[in-house]
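Replying to the earlier thread about multi-chain prediction with a worked example.

Input:
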Amino acid sequence: DTEVTQTPKHLVMGMTNKKSLKCEQHMGHRAMYWYKQKAKKPPELMFVYSYEKLSINESVPSRFSPECPNSSLLNLHLHALQPEDSALYLCASSRWDRNNEQFFGPGTRLTVL
Amino acid sequence: KQEVTQIPAALSVPEGENLVLNCSFTDSAIYNLQWFRQDPGKGLTSLLLIQSSQREQTSGRLNASLDKSSGRSTLYIAASQPGDSATYLCAVELTQGGSEKLVFGKGMKLTVNP
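Result:
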């Protein structure tokens, strides 16, 4: 299995909703990442988990809450989002060694109304 | 602060041409450099990773080179095909607070016309 899966593919939520994004990989990778990508822009790093511990938080607002229950699974909990948070949310994973090639999932297209 | 630049922002070529995509970065203290392609509305597909100790990597019709001292990388695409049409992004990996992260260029949109 050489892929990163993300669910759901699309999500529409109101500003008062609570929802979660899920990411899974079965490549034995020890690092997982969340990125946010707006239209016609490059991905922006949000969080990095290495060995199930949060190692980078790029000053992301607290309405985004990451969780790494185990080395294969990464969640992003969403609460009280704003319309400007609408974007493509990408998950990635890597081995976390000298060859730290990142592999990306297909993304979740989030729309906040 | 590391900045990654890709010029031009867009390129349109006829099928069959050999292409060179450029990427430059301001700080040579990088860990690795990775090239990706992205199709509209999709995730990123990793094309090649060059470790900082390497000079180039090849995969099929793709060849990527790295010159750390001058802060440059090039992605060479041989005999371009319409299926190569996509946005190509380069990203440098650097260390932050004992962890590693990617810094992306803004990408180059490639259109290969049949």
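Chain A touches chain B at residues 4, 6, 31, 41-43, 45, 48, 50, 55-56, 88, 90, 92, 96, 98-107, 109 (CB under 8 Å).

Feel free to reuse this layout for your own posts.
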